[in-house]
């Protein structure tokens, strides 16, 4: 079903893949996990490593899974799963069974949890984290008011991409 490829084989627009199509970030393992939808993130290179950086608020249920684990998975799904992505981004795994509600099927990838419906799964090993802070903003163009007026600031996780899996 999935095959591992070299990261240099990837061919996609990250602005579309992350910002428009969204992704599922999943922490934990097959015994216990939670997933959340994300439309923020970066792909790049730092410290001579290929990385994915994600941002998770400490009040999200997925936060505790990401904090506790060494690695997590990032699953990219097609447009036909937009409703599942919307559900996973607007409901807490503390309050419902996201798999039962969406029909998503978890699959194990290098000790992490991805989804059978995904077109691509990145397995990421955490390297560094830091908390976004109000004092770090260098402009006054409304970002703080728009994104942080009622929710806490995110924790960023710079993570090495240790596995790339695509559908056959």
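Sequence proposed for the structure above (168 residues):
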């Amino acid at each position: 079903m999935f095959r591992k490829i070299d990261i240099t084989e990837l061919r996609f627009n990250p602005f579309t893949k992350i910002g428009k199509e969204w992704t599922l970030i999943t922490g934990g393992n097959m015994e216990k996990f939670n997933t959340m939808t994300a439309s923020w993130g970066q792909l790049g290179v730092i410290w001579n490593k290929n990385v994915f950086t994600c941002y998770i608020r400490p009040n999200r249920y997925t936060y505790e899974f990401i904090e506790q684990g060494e690695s997590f998975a990032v699953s990219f799904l097609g447009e036909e799963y937009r409703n599942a992505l919307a559900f996973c981004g607007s409901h807490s795994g503390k309050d419902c069974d996201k798999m039962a509600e969406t029909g998503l099927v978890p699959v194990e990838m290098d000790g992490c949890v991805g989804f059978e419906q995904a077109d691509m799964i990145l397995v990421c090993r955490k390297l560094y984290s830091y908390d976004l802070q109000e004092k770090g903003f260098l402009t006054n163009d409304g970002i703080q008011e728009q994104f942080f007026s009622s929710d806490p600031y995110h924790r960023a996780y710079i993570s090495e991409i240790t596995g790339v899996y695509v559908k056959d």
